[in-house]
């Protein structure tokens, strides 16, 4: 496995991101050792919050929230998934799989022996993080679920999976403008356009993704998000992620939906506190909180939160509101 490591100089001078790096080692299936980066901020004896990012962000996404959460007395641990941020980056898209990401993060979680965690997860942070809960429920004290999903064998239904599989080859390879148009129109096939754009478009741009999903345009902020990717060789992980969401009728996707079934079986017995904090304007996951609220015992009867105007990346657009929701929830359930 060929692996790249973003030079440290790429991370110098990023606005609001003056955090000390920490590193751990995980192993790929072929035995290749990979360096995984994480932040560990706040008091050592503070109650720990595990913040998992998604596509195509990294721990930089939580930089504003880290200041607020540690100021409230919590310890915040924010890793960079393999392929993202300061973590190592396998070069081939074929080196990434959903199960592989779960395995890497499971090695990291158990290697550091993290316990008593409040999981804060969004986007792929949810798809991976909730699988971690399924594998290690004893390590999690609470869950905060935002703008994510966990597709299984029943949702979406097989008929829809089959329809998506038939339609996918007909989707043209789009540019960013086409993907934006599909999402903003609420088109049923918008996610397929997103998958094609990320995995096949020669014009795929990490910078453009933040405009597509949250209309983030500040050049200094976008410079931070693209810092880990000095050239196109570094972005295989970001390009592969959308295609790993198990929504198509392939053997690999079927196996991942079945693995998600096993995670859901644990979640449906999870009685510790659960909060959903979805936004009202996320073009990708809007409405997805209903499944978590109805199926996880710890979420039932709770006053959940809707974050207004956060887009997909609510950590970036509404860090104060999201942080307040987390702090209030943790204090109420202490």
What attributes does this structure have?
334 residues, alpha/beta, Rossmann fold, two-stranded antiparallel sheet
Explain how this protein is built:
The chain has one domain (3-154, 251-332): Rossmann fold (3-Layer(aba) Sandwich). α1 runs parallel beside α13 and α6 (190-200) packs antiparallel against α9. With 334 residues, it is α/β, with parallel strands linked by helices. The chain has an 8-stranded mixed beta sheet with strand order 2-3-5-4-7-8-9-10, with helices on both faces. Strands 1-6 form a two-stranded antiparallel sheet. The longest helix has 17 residues, at 251-267. It contains 13 helices and 10 strands.
Low-confidence stretches: none
Q: What average pLDDT do the residues reach?
A: 96
Helix content: 40-55%
SSE sequence, one letter per element: EEEEHEEHEHEHHHHHHHEHEHH
Based on the structure given, which CATH architecture is correct? 3-Layer(aba) Sandwich
The computed structural class is alpha/beta
Strand order of the largest sheet: 2-3-5-4-7-8-9-10
Oligomer: single chain
End-to-end separation in angstroms reads: 45 Å
Q: Any idea how many domains?
A: 1
- What's the CATH H-level homologous superfamily? Alpha/Beta hydrolase fold, catalytic domain
Number of helices: 13
- Overall, the morphology is globular
Strand content: 15-25%
Spatial extent as radius of gyration: 18 Å
Largest sheet: number of strands, sense, barrel closure? 8 strands, mixed
CATH class: Alpha Beta
Using the coordinates shown, work out and report the CATH topology.
Rossmann fold
């Amino acid at each position: 496995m060929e692996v790249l490591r973003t030079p440290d100089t790429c991370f110098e001078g990023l606005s609001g991101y003056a955090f000390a790096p920490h590193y751990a080692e995980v192993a790929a299936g072929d035995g290749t050792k990979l360096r995984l980066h994480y932040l560990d901020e706040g008091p050592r004896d503070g109650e720990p919050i595990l913040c998992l990012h998604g596509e195509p962000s990294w721990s930089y996404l939580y930089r504003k929230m880290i200041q607020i959460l540690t100021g409230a007395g919590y310890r915040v641990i924010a890793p960079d998934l393999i392929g993202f941020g300061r973590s190592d980056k396998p070069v081939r898209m074929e080196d990434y799989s959903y199960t592989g990401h779960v395995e890497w993060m499971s090695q990291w979680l158990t290697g550091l022996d993290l316990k008593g965690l409040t999981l804060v997860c969004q986007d792929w942070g949810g798809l991976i993080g909730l699988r971690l809960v399924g594998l290690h429920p004893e390590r999690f004290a609470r869950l905060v679920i935002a703008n994510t999903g966990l597709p299984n064998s029943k949702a979406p239904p097989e008929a829809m999976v089959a329809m998506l599989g038939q339609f996918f080859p007909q989707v043209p390879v789009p540019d960013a403008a086409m993907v934006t148009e599909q999402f903003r129109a609420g088109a049923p096939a918008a996610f397929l356009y997103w998958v094609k754009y990320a995995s096949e478009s020669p014009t795929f741009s990490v910078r453009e993704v933040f405009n597509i999903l949250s209309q983030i345009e500040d050049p200094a902020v976008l410079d931070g998000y693209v810092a880990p990717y000095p050239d196109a060789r570094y972005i295989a992980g970001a390009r592969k992620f959308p295609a790993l969401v198990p929504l198509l009728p392939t053997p690999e996707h079927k196996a991942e939906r079945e693995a998600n079934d096993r995670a859901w079986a644990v979640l449906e017995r999870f009685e510790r506190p659960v909060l959903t904090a979805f936004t009202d304007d996320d073009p990708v996951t809007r409405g997805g909180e209903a499944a978590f609220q109805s199926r996880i015992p710890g979420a039932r009867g709770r006053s959940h939160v809707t974050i207004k105007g956060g887009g997909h990346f609510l950590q970036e657009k509404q860090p104060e509101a999201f942080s307040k929701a987390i702090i209030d929830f943790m204090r109420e359930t202490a």
